[in-house]
Design a protein that fits this description.
Shape: globular
Structural class: alpha+beta
CATH topology of the largest domain: TIM Barrel
CATH superfamily of the largest domain: Glycosidases
Number of helices: 6
Number of domains: 3
Number of strands: 38
Largest sheet: 8 strands, parallel, barrel
Helix content: 10-25%
Strand order of the largest sheet: 25-28-29-30-31-33-35-36
Strand content: 25-35%
CATH class of the largest domain: Alpha Beta
CATH architecture of the largest domain: Alpha-Beta Barrel
Bound molecules: (2S,3S,4S,5R)-3,4,5-trihydroxy-6-oxo-oxane-2-carboxylic acid
Radius of gyration: 25 Å
Length: about 600
């Protein structure tokens, strides 16, 4: 058995949708507010799409042509009255499918809906999905018609203690269908998932080995599949077992490895029965050795930055290639070869663009402040959402770190939960590194105050010790930084996964004036000096590339709903600290 867990609420997971045949369902959708989240009004379910047939008919909600929301997009910034709306909205898209073909299967695919989605099609509930940042799909083969199809999706963005993230988080709760919606069309038996990676054991050999897994879906599966890599003259048969899951190996000569300096991607074609799927995949290895991270066997320093998936100019979640280009373009200007995609899965287009540009990525789920560690339902959801993320991205060479948590206190229920998560992630993907953003020990355990120690038991489970440390902003002033040193008893590489401080772009003062660009620049200089001396520090991702929307940040005239720790303002203007970090990276 290769894959043991079918993600929640889905009969079949479908990966690589952009390279499949699909009908684009983006655009204007009608909507109805459901502030009390009843799913129906006046005794009738919204998914029925009922319209009175004569003048006596009664209905107490309605989709009208002039009430539309754009998909993909958060609803909050589309209508002023929805700015802080946190409840349910029902979306409706009607469409014809005149070329509907009975020999095919059809799936509604939603790249993300924040936070919970109830998906209905032509009056039937298909299922629910929880988790605002990962993709899901439902089959509609038996329901689809040539005309008058209606897809009605209820999306609820109410924050709840048993969600991932939990109730309070330092980013904006963009509600709605925030990423693409597609009607995917596949043959009756099709390739639903595959995973290709370069075998580490073959790294130093002349002929390299690509290890692969393939999963087919359908009732009458072919006995063989083929993999083709035209540029490498590979055309290989793969025997498929009767359950449709199979593992295989391909030996290749003259493979060019993927790396930030040379982000080589190969066209790959996989064929099985009537199905054929294409992808562009890079091959590289990543591992740790003592206190180093090795990419393709060579030590690498990760010149990174943290990023939220938000376009500040549009005040919305990123959902287009243009959004991805804007954000990754800024990171490249800073001199980065690495980005921490905080604090939840970012859009797939950005990950694919990073593959092309040669930017390494750290990915994570919002296992963030306040998670209900003792609740088994939450653990189940976390595993499901991580599965969806791994299935979506495991063919992306850029993605090298799976992070399982951010700043969580080491209590027994959390240790157990996250240790299970680490095992789960590793069982699905043993080829990448696992980390978590860790806080320093709270009890100094006999060490002098000038030494920060790291003994969180979770570190044992991780490949990298990643440290969030805000000395100079949340504790003390920047001039204290150089007095501190760090120690961990672990022979593991260290990444500084967060540090930083706020500055209002355009506000100037001396270097100790809070919120001034000078303060932030000084904090960067001192922080870099402090972290640079840590033995085994192989990279950093300061907090954060761009100012981002956060309801937790309400200082008038300074924050006004924005977290100001960005190196770039919400208007796209660089602050002084941007150049401090850029200068450091140019010398690394
Ligand atoms: C943190 C969190 C991050 C916050 C940041 C801040 O430690 O991980 O989500 O936004 O600090 O700005 O305080």
């Amino acid at each position: 058995m290769i894959w043991t867990l079918v993600p929640q609420a889905q009969n079949t997971f479908i990966s690589n949708t952009e390279n499949r045949t699909f009908t684009n369902l983006n655009g204007k959708w009608n909507y109805v507010l459901d502030p009390y989240m009843t799913g129906g009004m006046g005794g009738r379910a919204i998914m029925d799409n009922y319209e009175p047939t004569d003048k006596t008919g009664r209905v107490e909600y309605g989709f009208t042509p002039d009430r539309t929301l754009y998909v993909p997009g958060g609803w909050n910034t589309q209508k002023p009255e929805l700015a802080y709306f946190e409840a349910a909205i029902w979306y409706r898209k009607t469409f014809d499918k005149p070329d509907f073909d009975e020999s095919k299967r059809y799936f509604v695919y939603i790249e993300a809906a924040n936070q919970t989605a109830t998906v209905t099609f032509n009056g039937k509930e298909l299922g629910k999905h929880e988790g605002g940042y990962t993709p899901f799909s439902f089959e509609v083969t038996n329901l689809i018609k040539k005309q008058d199809n209606f897809l009605i999706i209820g999306v609820n963005n109410q924050r709840d203690a048993s969600d991932i993230p939990a109730k309070v988080h330092d980013w904006y709760n963009h509600g709605g269908i925030t990423r693409d919606v597609r009607l995917i069309e596949v043959p009756k038996n099709f390739i639903n998932n595959y995973f290709l990676s370069l075998d580490r054991e073959s790294l130093n050999k002349k002929n390299k080995t690509i290890k692969g897994k393939l999963e087919l879906a359908g009732n009458s599966l072919p006995e063989n599949a083929q993999i083709l890599i035209p540029e490498l003259h590979i055309e290989q048969n793969i025997a498929v077992n009767p359950k449709g899951a199979t593992a295989f190996e391909v030996t290749v000569k003259n493979l060019k490895l993927w790396s930030p300096n040379s982000p080589k991607l190969y066209d790959i074609i996989i064929k099985a029965g009537d199905d054929e799927i294409r992808d562009q995949i890079g091959f590289r290895t990543v591992e740790t050795k003592g206190k180093e991270i090795l990419l393709n066997g060579e030590p690498i320093f990760l010149k990174g930055i943290c990023l939220h998936d938000e376009n500040p100019l549009r005040k919305d979640r990123g959902n287009s290639i243009e959004d991805a280009q804007l954000l990754l373009g800024w990171a490249q200007e800073l001199g980065c070869n690495f980005i921490r995609l905080a604090h939840y899965p970012h859009q797939e287009k950005l990950v694919r663009l990073a593959d092309k540009l040669g930017i390494l990525l750290w990915e994570e789920l919002p296992l963030y402040w306040g998670i209900q560690w003792e609740n088994p339902e939450v653990l189940k959801k976390a595993k499901e959402q991580y599965t969806e993320l791994i299935y979506r991205d495991y063919n992306r060479a850029s993605s090298i770190v799976w992070s399982i948590a951010n700043e969580t206190a080491p209590i027994p229920s959390r240790n157990e939960f996250l240790s299970e998560m680490a095992d789960h992630v590793r069982s699905l993907d043993p080829t990448r590194l696992i980390s978590a953003a860790i806080k320093k020990d709270q009890e100094l355990d006999g060490h002098p105050d000038s030494v920060y120690t790291y003994n969180d038991p979770l570190i044992e489970k991780l490949d990298i010790l990643s440290i969030n440390e805000y000395l100079g902003w949340y504790g003390g002033l920047p001039d204290q930084c150089r007095t501190k040193s760090f120690t961990s008893g672990f022979e593991k590489p260290i990444i500084i996964s967060e540090f930083g401080g706020g500055a209002l772009q355009g506000f100037h003062g001396d270097k100790l004036t809070r919120w001034s660009e000078e303060f932030q620049a000084y904090l960067y200089e001192e922080s870099i000096a402090m972290f640079d001396k840590i033995d085994g520090m192989v990279g950093m991702t300061p907090w954060i590339l761009v100012d981002f929307m956060s309801p937790l940040r309400q200082l008038p005239g300074v924050q006004d709903g924005w977290n100001r720790k960005g190196l770039i303002s919400e208007k796209g203007i660089k602050k002084k600290a941007f150049f401090v970090l850029k200068d450091y990276y140019s010398k690394k």
